[in-house]
Amino acid sequence: MSTYGAIIVGTGSELPEKRLTNDDLSKMVDTNDEWITQRTGIKERRIASEGESTATLATAAARKALEAANLQPQDLDLIICATVTPEMIFPSTACFVGAQLGVSGVAAFDLSAACSGFIYAIVTGSNFIKSGQYKNVLVIGAETLSRITDYKDRGSCILFGDGAGAVVLQRTSDAKRGLIYSSLHADGNGAEVMKCMPGSRHPISESLVREGKQFMQIKGREVYKFAVQKFEELIESAMRTCELTVDDVKLIVPHQVNQRIIDSAMEKLNMAPEKAHVNINKYGNTSAASIPIALDEAWRMGKLHPGDAVIFVAFGAGLTWANAVFRI
Ligand code: UT7
After folding, report:
1. Rounded distance between C-alpha atoms, residue 191 and residue 258, angstroms
2. Mean pLDDT of the chain
3. Which atom of ligand 1 is nearest to the CA of 258?
């Protein structure tokens, strides 16, 4: 048992200005606002402009989180960035963020667990704190999914958006606060369900690009079934292990996968739909960025207070799935 707690002391988020509405998409592929709204709950998503990238969005979110935490970049011991759309293959996005924040010598690395990435990252960051190694850790989820989206594929292009969210974690002597439970899972046998191929097995080549394989490929129906099942299982196991009743849970901040998936899971869990903080209508699915963006919104709306229990839940490519319970 650690003698330290890792608490959230500041949150921030950054969304590109540019909006892509359902009506805009209906001019690009055979779709319409009614279909997208009914099947996903999404009305619009944000798209990075030229000059914006995963690191610029991540840095802007990080600055806001640091300001909320009343800390300077120099106070940080570690920067972790969860992303599947990194600034470059290397150096890591987290290194670019450190440079843009003006720090040198602060540990920095990226973490890849797709839509579950932010939970993997916040658990990793918390454990560096709980072990006593670090005091202040910046955890970011940042994506520019528009850069790997095929805007000719109506089954996927309606879903995704760009953005970044960040939290600052800090050591406290109260081990009962901050991260109190987490479970992280993966099954690489599900790799075919969602993937984006360029890499060492399939280096970028003219033929790869000709076939459109530089873009992500998803089997939406399979993701749908997997997500509903895992959402329920992960919330139930978190509540059971932490001995939390429905009333004890102040807020669920889920990966913003699909309004229907979230509603259906909340119903099966006998929880009021408003117990889940959802903003998918405005931003779509931003993968690793979706939970910290939603958390920052909920935090700034005054939905969370010291002592509240909040559950994060996510599932995504890998396949991966994860949960984490924080006592604010
Ligand atoms: O975070 C990880 C990534 N997230 C996901 O993969 C999201 C999870 N999946 C989903 O949210 C849903 O599966 C989708 C929103 C992607 C699709 O909804 P669905 O209810 O599962 O639709 P479907 O794929 O079963 O397709 C139903 C019909 C098909 O037509 P037919 O075969 O019934 O004639 C599709 O061709 O809807 C058609 N369709 C569309 N129609 C209008 C598929 N995409 C569209 C579209 N507009 N954009």
Report:
1. 20
2. 97
3. 11
For residue 1, pLDDT beyond 90: no
Closest atom of ligand 1 to CA, residue 29: 48
Taking the alpha carbons at both ends of the chain, their separation in whole angstroms is: 19
Indicate which residue's Cα is closest to atom 12 of ligand 1. Answer: 220
Confidence category of residue 2, pLDDT binned at 50, 70, 90? confident
pTM given for the model? 0.97
Whether 301 has a pLDDT exceeding 80, the answer reads: yes
Q: What's the 221 CA to ligand 1 centre distance in angstroms?
A: 7
Q: What is the mean pLDDT of residues 126-140?
A: 98
Q: Please give the distance, rounded to the nearest whole angstrom, from the Cα atom of residue 229 to the centre of ligand 1.
A: 18
Instruction: State in Å: Cα 261 to ligand 1 middle.
Output: 13
Q: Is the pLDDT of residue 43 over 80?
A: yes
Set 81, 95, 115, 157: catalytic member? 115
Please return the burial class of 153, using the count of CB atoms within 10 Å of its CB with bins 0-12, 13-18 and 19+. Answer: middle
3-state SS class at 30: coil
Question: How confident is the model over 34-58, as a mean pLDDT?
Answer: 98
- The catalytic position among 22, 136, 258, 285 is 285
Tokens of 18: 């540019």
Ordered DSSP codes for 65-99: HHHHHT--GGG-SEEEEE-SS-SSSSS-HHHHHHH
Q: Which domains does the chain have, with CATH numbers?
A: 5-176 (3.40.47.10), 179-327 (3.40.47.10)
CB 141 within 8 A of CB 288: yes
